[in-house]
Amino acid sequence: MEKNITITGNCVQISINPKLYPIEVIYSASYVFLDKYYILLDEDHKKNVLVHIKPKKNKSEISEDEMEALAGDFLNELINYADYNVRAKQTQKIREMLIQRSIITNDPEILKNDELNDEEFNHILDKLDEDYDEFLDDPKEIAIPWEEKYGNKTKDK
Predict the structure, then answer these.
(1) 11, 57, 134, 150: which is deepest, by most CB within 10 A?
(2) CB-based contacts of 59, cutoff 8 Å, min separation 6
(3) Which DSSP letter does residue 109 get?
(4) Residue 132's domain spans which residues?
(5) Segment 60-77, tens digit of pLDDT
(6) pLDDT in tens, 118-156
């Protein structure tokens, strides 16, 4: 058993380093388990986050293997949400650009103000179009559906 996992009866305690997994990630992973388990977050003397997980249904016959599997599932969710947070940060600018583009497409007058002349305003719109077109480039043709790229090659019976 891992040194950061302790099983006592029908309760699993997991010690998590908050430098590796920020508290937001721990909250997200914990949220997944709220339907079936009671979750308690605490802190130990080393400033690690302690996650206590206890089943809501009081089963007297919970095996240690089941409790270890529960701890493993929780640790997998930590990695899942840590990855999600990293990808969200990496794609933040793209998402912001898409939102800006959708707002400007629906009402381009939002950009127009007294300080911009028509030429500057049109330059901004052209730049947004270039950025959007660059974002939509698909040189490896990943976005093309399989049927269009390779044709429908099912055999008739």
Answers:
(1) 11
(2) 10
(3) G
(4) 92-139
(5) 667 888 899 999 999 999
(6) 677 677 777 777 766 666 677 777 777 778 778 776 655
If one counts the domains in the chain, the total is 2
Q: Which residue(s) pair with 33 in the sheet?
A: none
Q: What are 86's two structure tokens? A: 């990293």
Q: How far apart are CA 27 and CA 77, in angstroms?
A: 10
Q: Which residue has the tokens 């997944």?
A: 32
At residue 28, the 3 state secondary structure works out as helix
- CB atoms near residue 73 (< 10 Å): 13
**Quick one: 10 and 64 in the same domain?**
yes
Assess whether 108 and 82 both reside in one domain: no
96 shares a domain with 81: no
Residues 6+ apart with CB under 8 A from 130: none
Question: d(Cα 104, Cα 96) in Å, to the nearest integer?
Answer: 12
CA dist 10 → 22, 42, 67, 81, 150 (Å): 27, 18, 7, 26, 54
Dist CA 151 CA 59 (whole Å): 55
